[in-house]
Design the sequence.
DNA sequence: TATGAATGAGCGTTCATTCAT
DNA sequence: TATGAATGAACGCTCATTCAT
């Protein structure tokens, strides 16, 4: 039965990610319906709606953290940094609420999410530091504003629709600003 | 009696701007209370909650449009452009939901808001065009990505808290990206 | 409209008295249905279920207090005391939950009910004191145990069904205990 | 395996007595947790919650019956009667819900409980008859009102808090009523 | 026209009971 | 047989909207 339960937990999380991706105001019932389980099952796995939201958020932040760590482990520092940046913005564009997750990473939504947010920010900070040391990102840029740009670009990409060319041109401008001044 | 009605409309709109600025999830009752009118009066002026939200949005977009037009009418084109950009981001930081309004300007929230959004974007486009002609903004940047950057910067400033220094450094990076390449 | 509202409030209270008289575990919906109003109307008048229960309780305690005061104002002290005692027990028998109200009178169910309970107990205390002074009730009985007997008799009458003759014989035994020893 | 099952049954009953003694509104889950078994095990032994409640009630009534029988078998009839009366009231005060059990004994809660209630009442009737024959209780008191007084005193003791001195004085008054008139 | 009372659909959550292991 | 997961009906409560004054 543990296998069943784990299965259901996964399905609920997946459903929640989709549903809350569309709108944070969605109801727990919607999640249950999409997951194909009864509503009480959702509450068995996540005792309150807030905890469910937090679990989704945590998952996203962990995925981002993992991606950052993978990229940090290998390859050219500059490529790794810009690659991660673009990837985050791209996913935000298609998944809508990931940007909200990024924004929430700094605030206070429960211990797990806070921890995951912290780790993600640390991994991104590492990426940035290495890119700066290698000369791919201007040395005078501090973490705070680079992170703000990451969040902003994600939201900007989401908000204005998903034209891929526009998004790439937006990033091109942004990256020009991030590269060292000659 | 028409003066009375217009008065009430104003007060409701002002109250709504404040209330929804704090939280989009606020209730219509809260608006009525802050405006000092009965709830039925709110619904007489704005038959649905969506229409009330739209009216607030429209108001904000019109203000932005007016600001853009004023700046376009006088002074150095580059200064006008960057001034407007900074001002929008600053207000987004303090008023929280204006970014949502900006984002929504492109989508489909009723005729009035769409119209106001269009006019605001045209006024901002004018500002951009003049700044490009004067050499203050790179010529190869198209409206779409610059607008996306405006929206993104507003949201980024809102999401990550309102540290003024960080916000300014973020904008400095962004403006470096927007200036012509040497 | 105030007349309408007051009317509804009355009807809700009456319905609640009946419904909760049968079972404290009854739902707020049941009250609304019996009162013939929508459920939101119940909550408009009594913001929480506890407040509704408290209002019913307060009403009952006030009625009891008024009865005690009326009886204290006129007639033979002994008659007044035993009359009140019998009346309370009789009503408890027919209305079931009034005994619970009596029991709760000493505990802590909100300010209004506590106040009403206090006043009722004071009025009953007055009745007792006068009866003792007149020699109709033994002088060595203290308020606490007499009140406990009142509560107990009410509950006993309720619990064992409502046979009137049994109830009267039960009270006769009890009154024999309360009268001065020869 | 039958020994296991009987063991579990006992533990569940013990847990249920404790849990429902504290609050009738307690959940079946609470019982299972305190008993240290899964919830399904509770339902295997007691197919519905009502049946579980009835089993607890039956147990209590049987204990009362046994006490009455023991007291009837030996010693002074008057002492036995008043001893039993006081003991029931004392336990009601400390165990809260036993009064409800007593009250329910007359009503219609399933065959087992009805039978146990009947037997308890018969044993108490025996106690009463012997006390009356010995002159310790007035001869004109009939079973019905004496039983009502037992129930009432139990509830009264429970409801008004458990001050031991008050309880004893209350019983003293009551016993004065029950003793033969000189 | 302005008001506040009334409404019911919907929300988050709990719980007795059933099912699958 | 014992378990814990799954279920859906029900609860207390809120809110956008309508009605009656």
Sequence:
């Amino acid at each position: 039965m543990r296998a069943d339960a784990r299965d259901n937990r996964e399905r609920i999380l997946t459903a929640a990610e989709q549903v809350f991706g569309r709108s944070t105001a969605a109801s727990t019932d919607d999640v249950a319906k999409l997951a194909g389980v009864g509503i009480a099952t959702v509450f068995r796995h996540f005792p309150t709606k807030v905890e469910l939201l937090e679990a989704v958020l945590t998952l996203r932040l962990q995925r981002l953290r993992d991606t950052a760590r993978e990229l940090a482990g290998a390859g050219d520092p500059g490529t790794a940094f810009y690659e991660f940046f673009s990837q985050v913005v791209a996913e935000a564009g298609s998944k809508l609420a990931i940007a909200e997750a990024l924004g929430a990473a700094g605030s206070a939504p429960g211990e797990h999410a806070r921890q995951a947010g912290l780790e993600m920010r640390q991994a991104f900070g590492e990426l940035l530091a290495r890119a700066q040391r290698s000369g791919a990102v201007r040395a005078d840029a501090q973490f705070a504003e680079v992170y703000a740009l990451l969040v902003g670009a994600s939201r900007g990409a989401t908000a204005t629709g998903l034209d891929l060319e526009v998004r790439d041109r937006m990033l091109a401008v942004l990256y020009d600003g991030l590269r060292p001044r000659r």
